Amino acid sequence: MRFLVIEDDATNFALLKGMLPNTAQITHAETFAETKRLLATEEFDIVLSDMGLPDCPFELFHAKFPEIRKLCPTIPIIVITGSGSESAGVETLKLGAQDYLMKGEFGKKQLLRAIRYAFERKHAEESLREAKAWSELVLGLVPSAVFTVNTEQTITSWNREAEVLTGYSAAEVIGQKCYKFVLHPCTERCGIMCSDVAKPVKNKECQIRRKDGELRYISKNADLLRNAKGEVVGGVESFEDITDRKHAEESREEIERIIRHDLKAPIIGVKGMAELLKDIPNLSSEQLECVKLLDESGDHMLDMINMSLILYKIEQGVYTPTTQRVDLVSKVKHLLADHRRLLTYKRTPVRITVDNQDASETELFTAVVDPFICRIMLSNLLTNAVEASPPGKTIKIDFSRNAGGVRIVIENAGAAPTQIRGHFFEKYATFGKNNGTGLGTYSARLSAKAQGGDIALSVSDATDTTTLTITLPHA
Q1: Which segment of 210-214, 227-231, 250-254 scores lowest on mean pLDDT?
Q2: Which residues of 260-270 are buried (b: 16+ CB within 10 A; e: fewer)?
Q3: CA angle 205, 207, 211 (to 5 degrees)
Q4: Which of 396, 203, 94, 280 minimizes the C-alpha distance to 79?
Q5: Rounded to an integer, what distance in angstroms lies between the CA atom of residue 49 and that of residue 76?
Q6: Structural domains in the chain (count)
Q7: What's the Cα-to-Cα distance from 69 to each of 63, 125, 269, rounded to whole Å?
Q8: Which domain does 282 fall in, by range?
Q9: Which of 257, 292, 316 is the last residue of a domain?
Q10: Torsion angle of the four alpha carbons 321, 324, 326, 332, in this order, in degrees rounded to the nearest 10
Q11: pLDDT digits (tens, 9 = 90+) for 82-110
Q12: Domain co-membership, 185 together with 252
């Protein structure tokens, strides 16, 4: 181990040298100038330094000590002070020394122990310094604004992205209260420090006011910071600017409302024309079939627009189902009639069962549901099954009841692609359909949940089948 011993008194140097291990490589410096030269040109493992030198007397040592620390930032330093100068030794710890010893009050054992502890403390300090540097680097690179506060809601750190999003520099906000830039409800009820706010806070939307006065929407996450004892010492918050997204959503919703309203008028006109055409005498059966298809297409379009309006209300949490008792077997048979051409073309039979027993022509299976959204839910799932089923393969539909409520199982041949299974019910999720919108299964599940139920997907590669299980509560 390489020691630099800074001591101008020969007797004291001899005492120190005698306490060090026989294997120690000792370099001796008698002046402050010589100390600086040696630290700048040679490498050492530890420094032992007296606090009074010919060119750096005791009263100047604290002022000059940072020069030594700067020349050996990673090396532990132990200072040795005269008897009665313990406060001076303590002061050097604040300046970066790892330990101090009082002359005449330590022996070999105490010196070696101090050296060992000095290395441990220096290693811990370096590890802490590295961790801090890395955390500052990470916080400077993350795409989210991040800041921390103490228990008094005073900002203690502020990363680069926080500066960009708010317009306030770190120098302007550190030491300031965090409500310097936040708005309601944060000014009245701090999401970080309020004990009645569940932690962690996730994806909470609120507003801030930038330095230039502009209001911005943000989505934030926050949690408490605790020390090793579990005591709350502050909080950390990250946030992202979602203003553009919010404005885009508001614009989209407004456009959709306008389109839904404006589309209804011409469709109602088409349906009215279909009704007039029915009254024309001497129409052939083919012509009457075309008029019927025109009328049914108008109904279908109106259903789609009405469903779009209802889906919007469900998504906003403002839809209240209107329920009545409905025969679900008859409902499914009626919906399958809309697919008769495709079923005939694909030679796809449909088997309807109640409790796994074939349903008779007059079999009833009633449930209390919202008729409109239940019809749309079933229509979307049946369309999905008919389109996905390979030619000649049977589609199975079973109705049953259990303690949880009503259960409808729709099974078709053809396992759903692996690429879509994890996203089957997500909005706009589609795969393998040229004209697929990814809204059918999404709206079906949304409709089920609006009635207090749900839809689950089960895919079997072994049997090459896809099964959708609808559950609806008892009335």
Answers
A1: 250-254
A2: eeeeeeebeee
A3: 145
A4: 94
A5: 11
A6: 4
A7: 11, 14, 88
A8: 246-316
A9: 316
A10: -20
A11: 756 788 888 999 999 999 999 888 999 99
A12: no
